[in-house]
Amino acid sequence: MLETIVRKMKTGVGLVAIIGVPILTAYSYFIPDIITTKVTNTHIRDNGSSYLIYTNDGVFENSGAWYRGKITSDTIEQKIEATRGKDVTLTKYGWRLYIPLLCDKHENIVGVEEMPPMTPVVF
């Protein structure tokens, strides 16, 4: 009896993993997140094919992504350089993935918009 319950639980966990992991991965890579932050610095990486973007909310990557229609990262890099030190809205997707000596990926930026300056309200 106990063996049957354990076997069913293992099967259930396996099915959840087989179905859930691809769905979460696809969601993260095809549905972007939007954050408001301040760009503090940038760094060219991989002979200019990608950039690291340092913000108050962490480090992000600016690189091409063919499946999102982002062939080059130069246009977004120009916008980021023009808004350095200002409040911006970043559209990003993906996860931070670090495997020593093999892979070092950050969330990829696909859009940048400068936030309008806040005007004080006088009563």
Task: Give a topology summary.
Elements: H1 2-30, E1 33-45, E2 50-55, E3 58-63, H2 74-82, E4 87-93, E5 97-99, E6 103-105, E7 108-114
General description of the model:
The chain has 123 residues and is an alpha+beta fold. It folds into 2 domains: 31 residues; 83 residues, OB fold (Dihydrolipoamide Acetyltransferase, E2P) (Beta Barrel), CATH 2.40.50. Helix content is 31%, strand content 37%. The chain has 2 helices and 7 strands. Strands 3-2-1-4-7 form a 5-stranded antiparallel sheet.
For the record, the CATH architecture of the largest domain stands as Beta Barrel
> Any idea of the CATH topology of the largest domain?
OB fold (Dihydrolipoamide Acetyltransferase, E2P)
In CATH, what is the class of the largest domain? Mainly Beta
Helical run tally: 2
> Mind describing the biggest β-sheet?
5 strands, antiparallel
Shape: elongated
